[in-house]
Hints:
- By secondary structure, the chain is an alpha+beta fold.
- The protein folds into 2 domains: 160 residues, 2-Layer Sandwich (Ribosomal Protein S5, domain 2), CATH 3.30.230; 115 residues, GHMP kinase, C-terminal domain (Alpha-Beta Plaits, 2-Layer Sandwich).
- Helices cover 32% and strands 27% of the residues.
- It has 9 helices and 10 strands.
- Helix 7 crosses helix 8.
- The longest helix has 16 residues.
- The chain starts with a strand and ends in a 5-residue tail after the last strand.
- The model has no long low-confidence stretch (mean pLDDT 95).
- GO terms for molecular function: 4-(cytidine 5'-diphospho)-2-C-methyl-D-erythritol kinase activity; ATP binding.
- Belongs to the GHMP kinase family. IspE subfamily.
- Pathway: Isoprenoid biosynthesis; isopentenyl diphosphate biosynthesis via DXP pathway; isopentenyl diphosphate from 1-deoxy-D-xylulose 5-phosphate: step 3/6.
- Keywords: ATP-binding, Isoprene biosynthesis, Kinase, Nucleotide-binding, Transferase.
Amino acid sequence: MTGSIRETAPAKINLALHVTGRRADGYHLLDSLVTFATDGDGLHLSPASEDSFRVTGRFGALLGEAQDNLVIRARDLLRTVVRSTGHATPPVAITLDKALPIASGIGGGSADAAATLRGLCRLWNIRLPDDAMKALALSLGADVPMCLASRPALARGIGEELTPVPALPSLALVLVNPLVSVSTPEIFRRLEWRDNDPMPPLPVDRQADWTAFLASQRNDLEPPARALVDEIVTVSGALAASGASLVRMSGSGATCFGLYAAPAEAERAARRLTEQHPLWYVQPTSTVCGE
């Protein structure tokens, strides 16, 4: 087993999210363009005499019981799978630095679970076949496979059918959350239409006007979320006033993002937004490039 491992659990951003149907089991079908920020939660994993898990960071105290955390579920599930192959899985001390807001539409829990899988594979010096790893990730949640890759992708089905988007460039943006909880089941319940059009073909050139393309798309969860949570309207207005070229809610909210022409513009906007709304979560960041 190697020494200590550090993993980033990057924020997941739904640049567009179209709800295209509903399965018989109640799960909604999606057509979503997803990318990942260079900022997120942090995990530190190290060899130990016995398993342990602790949470630090701005939002750590807001998490529930430790044993319900997706980090623990990911650790235990991976250990069961790996032990069945005869490979050792020694005890591990895990610290989660919770920098992303809870239940905020940017994949915090799913990203943490995915980072745990990546980190433990490195710590235990193991490599599962890709199909087995993806199946394990999916058993933890529909968003975990995309967070496992943490690369731009077109996500279909319930989010598990992933197609890489190599042409998507890095985007400068600001994430803002008013620190108001949003019920994802309630947002889906309030959807007026569940059989919306999917996205058209994506640009195939990294030099294309991606902002214009994204502006022509939508997040079908945003209208019911705005009707349910007034603060989303306030956040969107503040981002627009800060000079963002495009403002949209991510996932089921309440986090919204604004796109800017360059990282320096995003930094300036974030400073103004923090001054105006010191209690909000405001994070300037960039997204990863497709590859």
